[in-house]
Amino acid sequence: MKRIHRGIVLALIAVVGISGCRRTPETIVPADTTPPPAPTETCDAACRQRLADSAAAAEAERARLAAEADARNRASAVARATATLTSMIFFDYDAAEIRGDAKAALDAKLPILRANSGIQIRISGHADERGSDQYNDALGQRRAAAAKRYLTDNGIDAARIAIVSYGEQRPMTTGADESAWSRNRRAEFEITAGTVTVPQ
Amino acid sequence: MMRLSVRRSCALALVAALAVLLRGTSASAQDSSLTVRIGLTYAPGTKPGVLVLPVSGANGDSIRAILQRDLDYSDRANVIAGESLVMDTASDAGRGRFNYPLYARLGAAALVQATMTATGLHVAVHDVRTQKVERVKDFPLSAVGLSPEWRQQVHAIADAIEFWVTGVRGIAATRILYQSAGRIWQVDSDGANPAVVTAPGGLAQLYPAWHPKATHFAYVVMTEEGTRVRIAEMNGNGLASPRTLPARNGSVNTSPIFSPDGQTILYAHGMENGTDLYAAPVSGTEAPRRVTVSRSMDAVSPSYSPDGRRIVFVTNRPGGLGLYIADADGTNAEALTPFNFGDKSQRTDPSWSPDGRLVAFQAEMGGAAQIYSVSPRDRGSPKQYTSEGRNEDPSWSPDSRHLVFTSNRSGSWQLWVLDTETGRVRQLTRAASGAKAGAWSPRFMIH
Asked: How confident is the model at residue A35 (pLDDT cuts 50, 70, 90)?
C-alpha cells in the first residue's frame, strides 16, 4: 500500500472504532481488522504509536460500556430484589396461617434479608371488611405476627422486623365480593431502614 | 325516677266533675305541687296521641318542632299534627279554652301547652280524657337560644314530658359519639349539630366509648407503631390533649370500654400471640391486669353488664368466632352463642342493654352482616332486626329500646337508629366521609 493510503485507512479505523461505538452502544467495537503492515513495509514509531493509541481507546471504550451494562444489570437486580422483599402475601378467610403461595414469597425474601443485614422492615397485617372492625384489628395483628414468625424461624433477627395491624382500615380494593376480599386479606412489607444493595 | 304522690281533695274532685260535664270548659293551671300522674297506662305496643300546641315567644317554633320530633323519635308517642287544627287549638288555648272532645276525636290522649317565660319554658300537660291539667312545671332554659346546649335543654324537657305521658323517660337529651374522616365526632340524638371532638392525629381514630358519667370518652388511634387506647375529656370544645395508655411498639390495643362504675377501662391487647382483654385503672398508675387467657387466639370487643359484674366479649377460641360471657375478672367464661362446627355466622360487636335484658350483636349472614339480639339469661333464638345491606356495631340507647348502628344501605357508611320494638329505622348521620362505630351516651340531663 502506498503510505498515504495506509494512513487514511488507519485514521478511518480509529474514527469508526471510536465514534461508531458512541452512536450504537450495544454494538460491539469492531475488531481491528487492519492487517498488520506487510513484512516488506516498516511501521515507524509514529505509526506504532497511533496503532497503540487506537487500540487503547477502543479497549477503554469497551471497558466503559461493559461497566455501564454491569451497573444497569445490577440496578435491575437490586430493583427486583427490592420488589421481592416488599411483595405482599395473602391469607385465607379468618385465618393467619401461612399458605403455600405465601410460603414461597416469604422464602424468596430470606436471602435478600440475609445479604443485606442493614435492612429493617415493617410487616403490616390487614383484613377484609367482613366481621367486626375490632376483631379485624386482632386478625391483622395475627397475620403480621405469623409472617414475622416465619422469617425469624428461618434465622432472621427479630429485632429487624416490626409488625403493625391496620385491620380493615386500609383496603387495597373496594368491593363486596371475594375477588376484592381476597386481595385485602394480606400482609404488606415495607423497608423502614437501609436499602437493598446486594441483590440475590 | 321521680316519685309520684297522689293528693286527693273533695273540692278538686267536684271541680273536675263539673269540668267534664261542660264542653269547651276553661281550665286553669293547677298548682305545680299537685303531682297526680296523668291517668295513662302505657301498654307496650300502644302509643298515646300527643298534641303539642304552638309555642309563642322567642324560638317558639323551634321549641315546638324539637318537642314534637323528640316525642316522635321516642317511638312511644303518636304526635298529632295538622295545621288547621293547630290554628283552632291555638286561638282557643289563648283564651283558656280547650276543646277536649275534639282532641280526643283526633286521637290525642295528652295536650302539651308550653309558654316562654323570662327564665325558660312553662309547660302544662293536659290529660284529654280527664280534661284537666295534670302536670305543670317551669323548666330553665339558660343557654343562648338555638345553641347546641339550648337544644339539649329542650330535649331534656321533651324527655320529662314523655315520662309524664308514657311513664318512660325519653332519650332525646343524649348524644352519639362516632368516627368519621379519621377523627371522633359527636352528634345530638336527633342528628343535629355534628361536631368533631378530637384533634387530628394518627392514621385513623376509631371506636369511641363513653365514660358512664359522660365526662370522658375513650377511643383508639391507629399509627405505624401500632394501635393505642386514649382517654379524652369531654369538655365542650373537646380538642384537649388526650391521655394515651402506654403500650409496646407494634402492639394492637383496641375496643376500649369503661366499667359502669367508671373506675376501669377494659380493652383488647396483643403483640405476637393473639389478643386478650386487659383491665387498667382509669386514674392511677397500676399496670393493666390480664382478664382473659386466649392462648394465641383472640378476645376483643367487651361489653359490661349494667351492674358491672359480668362481661360479654368476642372470641374465636373454639375455632369459630362468637360471643362468650364471663365474670368481670374473666372467670367462669362460657359461650353465649352456640359454637357449631362449620358455623360461619361470625358473631361480633356485642352490646349489653342498660336494663340487662338483651345483648345486641352483629352476625355475618349470607355475605352481609345483620343486627340481632339474644337474652343472656335464657339464651333462646336470637331476634333479627335488620335485613337490608350490611349492618354492624350496635350500641344501646339509655332506654334499652333503641340501637344506633352502622349501615351501608344508603350507599355509604352512616349511622342509623333502630326501634327494636317496631323495627322502625331512621338515618342519623349524613357525613360526607361516612360515619361508623356509634356509641350512645347516657342521659346528660334529667328533670
From this structure: low
Contact predicate A190/A83, CB 8 Å: no
pLDDT at B32: 35
At the top level of CATH, the class of A86-193 is alpha beta
Tell me the domain boundaries of chain A. 3-78, 86-193
The residue among B340, B400, B416, B336 whose CA lies nearest residue B374 is B336
Average pLDDT of chain B?
87
* Cβ–Cβ below 8 Å for A169 and B207: no
Quick one: DSSP state of residue A17?
A: I
Q: What is the pLDDT of residue B5?
A: 45
Query: Running DSSP on this structure, what letter comes out for residue A19?
Result: I
Q: Per-residue pLDDT tens for B218-230?
A: 999 999 999 999 9
> Is A97 in CB contact (< 8 Å) with chain B?
no
Task: Kindly tell me the sign of the dihedral angle through the C-alpha atoms of B166, B168, B169, B171.
Answer: negative
Cβ B272 vs Cβ A152: under 8 Å: no
B203 in contact with A at a CB cutoff of 8 Å?
yes
Which carries the bigger pLDDT value, residue B106 or residue B15?
B106
Which pLDDT score is estimated for A1? Answer: 47
Give me A49's grid cell: 504509536
- Chain A nearest C-alpha distance from B39 (Å): 46
Three-state SS at A123: strand
Chain pair A-B, CB pairs under 8 angstroms: 96
Q: Which three cell numbers stand for residue B101?
A: 272532645
- What global pTM score does this model have? 0.83
Q: Is the dihedral of CA B162, B168, B171, B173 positive or negative?
A: positive
Query: Which chain A residue lies closest to B272 (C-alpha atoms)?
Result: A145
Query: How far does the CA of residue B393 sit from the closest CA of chain A (Å)?
Result: 7
Structural domains of chain B sorted by starting position, each given as residue range(s) with its CATH number in brackets: 10-166 (3.40.50.10070), 175-440 (2.120.10.30)
**pLDDT score of B16:** 47
Contact map slice: B 142-161 vs A, CB within 8 A: none
> A162 vs B364: CB contact, 8 Å cut-off?
no
DSSP, collapsed to helix, strand or coil, labels residue B358 as coil
Give the per-residue pLDDT at B381: 87
B244 touches chain A (CB under 8 A): no
**Stretch 7-66 of chain A: residues touching chain B, C-beta under 8 Å:** none
Residue to substitute from A120, A126, A135, A169, interface B, most B β-carbons within 10 A: A135
Which of B207, B254, B351 to mutate to test binding with chain A, by most A CBs within 10 Å of its CB? Answer: B254
Please write the tens of the pLDDT for every residue from B144-191.
999 999 999 999 999 999 999 999 999 999 999 999 999 999 999 999
Average pLDDT on A17-30 reads: 52
**Cα–Cα distance for residue pair A123/A146, rounded to 1 Å:** 10
CA atoms within 13 A on the CB side of B223: 18
Could you tell me the pLDDT band of residue A21, with boundaries at 50, 70 and 90?
very low
Minimum distance, in Å, between the CA of residue A100 and any CA atom of chain B = 21
Residue B84, phi-psi category: left (phi > 0), alpha (psi -120 to 50), beta (remainder): alpha
Q: Give chain B positions within 8 Å (CB) of A141.
A: 251-252, 270-271, 275
